[in-house]
Amino acid sequence: MTELEAFAHELVQDVLANAEAGETTAPDSFTQRLIDDLTEAGELDDGLVCYHRTHGIEVSGYSVPAAIDTLDLFITHFTQHPLVPRITKTTVETLLRRLYTFAARCRRGSYENEVEDASPVFDMVLDVGKASTSVSRIRLFLFTNSLSATRTLPPTELDGIEVSHHVWDVQRLHRLCTSGSMHEAVTVDFVERFGRPLPCLGTPVTDCDYSVLLTIMPGDVLDQLYGEYGTRLLELNVRSYLQAKGAVNRGIRETLLTNPDRFLAYNNGISAVASHVDLTEHPGGSQGIRRLHDLQIVNGGQTTASIHHAARRDKADVSRVLVQAKVTVISPSQLQDIVPAISKYSNTQNKVTTADFSSNDPYHVELEKLSRSTWAPSPVADGQETRWFYERARGQYADALAGERTPARQRAFKTISPTRQKFTKTDVAKFRNSWDQLPHIVSRGAEKNFREFMVRMDQHGRPAVDLSYYRRLIATAILFRSTERIVSRHGFGGYRANIVTYTLAKLANATSHRVDLDQIWRAQALSPALERAISQLCVLVQRSITNPPRQANIGEWCKRPECWARVVEISWPVPSELTDELLSLEVVSRIQKEAVTDRLSEEEKAMIAEAAAVPKDTWFAVSHWAKETHNLQPWQRGIAFSLGQLAARGGEPSIKQAVQGLRLLQEAERLGFRVAARQ
């Protein structure tokens, strides 16, 4: 086999395995795979799988990015024999014409009357119809695991809206997945594209790893680049900070509309990286940037998007806008290590989380290590232990399989690490956020949910990724995937993903997280009582989420906290046979407390110990003194009193209580509280 043939074969096997595990069709599984890959590459901003076909119309899914005035539609051509024969130009044109017809029918209205109003297709038609009246561009994607004879088709238009065509065949996908950067390079020739190079200044030589150029980029250049490449221009850390809601973005927009000539003075500019730069000399001896290879913006995504939106939505003249830009030229081998650090440290206009969303984050590295060394018990009596394979980066499973040189060794690898036990970063976020009762966030899509998972983990403290954590994580994976199978058997007809995450969240809520995850790990399966409970519960959840108030869009309704609030109120007594299996509240409390303690720093543990050492009489005295003197805030008096009660019971304060308690003690002493009272 050639490398491409091996990739195509493994791709088919992966798609079929995922289809079987998720009880879906192979084309839908392939569509989801492409959405995941292209979202990670920055080509898409998530997307939904939703297949619909009728006379002259076919569509496999769609995406309406919240921050970009673009509508994306997908159509899939999947075959189990991908390289023979090739997909012809005629077939490519026919498929994209069906997709175009779907967009046109949705835009011109009334098509929703021709589809079932209680199906995901109905929501898709409404979403596409609404979006197509406000966007400036529609992109039609053909996903195929065959070799395509046609890669590019000329753009067209729909009622004055630009319509572009994008063919992703097996060769293009192979190039993306094996490039090492998981994104297609953005190379810009400024002379060819805009008729002139960018003026620049070079910095003194720093070291052999990088060099820095300073330039001024015209607003219309940024507008056109963002219009063509969208979030592909943006390093992953900054893709989600684009909506013009915060004060910073509103300020950018106001300057663009009312005082564009002052933009250079008011704005901090952008930071970008490139793997290579081609320079040209001006007649006077100064240098200019002719071409940038592998361009990515690592700070200034909101500036770039705001300029684009002002030009497209507000019809602002951005040709007078000038933006300062720092371009760091880094060798390709350093991109994956240095780019996240530049992004992390250079974002200052809005607070950007310090969580590194890349696969190099320590959380994901530790999960990978545990997945390679931890054996899962056999769920049957054959004694065959297996491993759950964590794909920290896309393609690791296929690479590991290919590393086993003989067919016999490859079969052995699949026995030990079966495809059904492979899971990814977005899977982890889906499992955990469902169990943590955040189904409305899970419903927003894999990439958005993953970003929120990382942000929340940074805000609330990172867990100690040890063996106990890993085993319980795998137990939530078994819970989630078992729920998927149970929901599929009910044949609800749509919204399976939403029903699954809401069912699991409701189970966690109704049982107060008392499901024995350690037992699920040991059995590698759910108990019959738990399966029956989930089967009963998912029916109630399905009725709730598919009946939104005021005939709202079901898909959008599932993304709202109000949807979860309604599901919480569902009356569902935990079946007695399941109650007998649940852990006690004391055991759950101990497990949760241990998890919190494990992720505390040494400094935080020391603060807890210091606060715990303060006698109860001191806390009560501070509370009484503060009430008499009014020298502390009422909530501080309350914390002091609560810490006194906790000390009287011999309890230990939380880190938040410890921090606030020690702070108010220090403030009280500064304001006259006698230290002797602490003796």
The count of helical stretches stands at 29
Secondary-structure-based class equals alpha+beta
Strands, count: 16
Number of domains: 4
Give helix % range.
Answer: 40-55%
Main sheet makeup = 8 strands, mixed
List keywords for this structure.
679 residues, alpha+beta, eight-stranded mixed sheet, six-stranded mixed sheet, 29 helices
Helices, strands, pairings?
Blueprint: H1 3-22, H2 26-40, E1 48-54, E2 57-63, E3 70-77, H3 89-107, H4 120-131, E4 137-144, E5 156-158, E6 161-168, H5 170-177, E7 188-189, H6 190-194, E8 198-202, E9 210-218, H7 219-229, H8 247-258, H9 263-266, E10 270-274, E11 276-281, E12 287-293, E13 296-299, H10 301-312, E14 322-330, H11 335-346, H12 362-373, E15 389-391, H13 396-402, H14 407-416, E16 422-424, H15 425-435, H16 439-442, H17 446-460, H18 467-490, H19 496-510, H20 517-523, H21 528-545, H22 554-557, H23 561-568, H24 576-579, H25 585-598, H26 602-612, H27 616-629, H28 634-648, H29 655-670
Parallel strand pairs: 3-4, 4-6, 10-14, 15-16
Antiparallel strand pairs: 1-2, 2-3, 5-6, 7-12, 8-9, 8-12, 9-14, 10-13, 11-12
Describe the model:
This protein is α+β, with helices and mostly antiparallel strands. The protein has four domains: 3-177, no CATH class; 188-346, no CATH class; 362-587, no CATH class; 602-678, no CATH class. 50% of the residues lie in helices and 14% in strands. The chain is built from 29 helices and 16 strands. The strands form three sheets. Strands 7, 8, 9, 10, 11, 12, 13 and 14 form an eight-stranded mixed β-sheet that branches. Strands 1-2-3-4-6-5 form a six-stranded mixed β-sheet, with helices on both faces. Residues 239-247 and 348-356 have low confidence and may be disordered.
